[in-house]
Design brief:
Helices cover 78% and strands 0% of the residues. The chain contains six helices and no strands. The protein is globular, with a radius of gyration of 13 Å. This is HEAT repeat domain-containing protein.
Length: 108
């Protein structure tokens, strides 16, 4: 799979996961979450260019794409992940802000 396809799939899966979650279909949301993690792992296994693309996804305009990308960055980008999550956590009235704070509290 080409990097561009992995990036598109990652973004599409984030959108689908969010939609299913908001509609209360947790089973389907969890399936999309698994696909997001799968794509993140494929990007990381693609070498430095794949890892760079995952970092770029953590800069995406969609806060949920940023959230998922930041949560899946490896230890080499830990400081950047913390920065992204901290910025997202500032949005306390948004679900992504709450999720970012949980990630910071329990996984960073």
């Amino acid at each position: 799979m080409k990097l561009s396809d992995m990036i598109s799939t990652f973004i599409d899966e984030v959108k689908k996961q969010l939609e299913r979650q908001q509609n209360g279909n947790i089973t389907a949301a969890n399936e999309h979450a698994d696909q997001i993690v799968n794509m993140a792992n494929k990007l990381k296994k693609s070498g430095s260019s794949g890892k760079s693309e995952l970092i770029n996804l953590a800069k995406h305009e969609d806060p949920y794409v940023r959230l998922w990308a930041a949560c899946n960055l490896d230890d080499t980008a830990r400081e950047f992940a913390i920065k992204v999550l901290t910025e997202l956590a500032q949005h306390t009235n948004e679900d992504y802000g709450h999720s970012a704070q949980i990630q910071l509290d329990f996984n960073m």
